From TrEMBL:
<keyword id="KW-1133">Transmembrane helix</keyword>
<dbReference type="InterPro" id="IPR003848">
    <property type="entry name" value="DUF218"/>
</dbReference>
<feature type="transmembrane region" description="Helical">
    <location>
        <begin position="6"/>
        <end position="23"/>
    </location>
</feature>
<keyword id="KW-0812">Transmembrane</keyword>
<dbReference type="InterPro" id="IPR051599">
    <property type="entry name" value="Cell_Envelope_Assoc"/>
</dbReference>
<dbReference type="Pfam" id="PF02698">
    <property type="entry name" value="DUF218"/>
</dbReference>
<keyword id="KW-0472">Membrane</keyword>
<feature type="domain" description="DUF218">
    <location>
        <begin position="41"/>
        <end position="174"/>
    </location>
</feature>
<protein>
    <submittedName>
        <fullName>YdcF family protein</fullName>
    </submittedName>
</protein>
<dbReference type="InterPro" id="IPR014729">
    <property type="entry name" value="Rossmann-like_a/b/a_fold"/>
</dbReference>
Amino acid sequence: MKKWVLRVGIVLLAVGGVVYIWLGEEMKQGVQPVANGTAEYVIVLGAKVKPGGVPSLSLKNRLEEAVKYLNKYPHVKVIVSGGQGADEDRTEASVMLKYLQDNGIDTNRILVEDQSTSTYENLLFSKELLPTGTKRITIVSNDFHLKRAKYLAESLDFEVDVVAAKTPKSVEAKLKLRERAALLKTYVIGY
């Protein structure tokens, strides 16, 4: 009886290890294709906002990349997407809007989606702000998050390219572990 339990445990551990590695490789593929300004709209996905409207490091990195991209491609418009979490004192979108404005992005280029509470909702609700028939979009998020974001966007009939922001080293291990679980759930459930 004990040998059987041990064998099952070893098999489960091996399967878990393989799935863990596979999900890690999937996440690495998220940073392609790199955006080149051909999509007219970029969506910056929200992330944690600290008290007082201070963007978390993850969100700050996304916003820094968005500013660089928008300066490089002045014809591109941007949607800042993110609602207000229970532990946030304002919407992620409002913080992103202010950051972009403070960094020289013309307000006329910025659309605000401030109701979403998940990556899927970021994309779904942002789609409602786009001109009818818009297919090509650029997504800005942290590198670890882009595979799932692209998968979800493609499920909404988008053609996607990406701008990858670095993941802060201080939270990288935690975020990558959590993202593996979220990616697996997305593959199984679909959103």
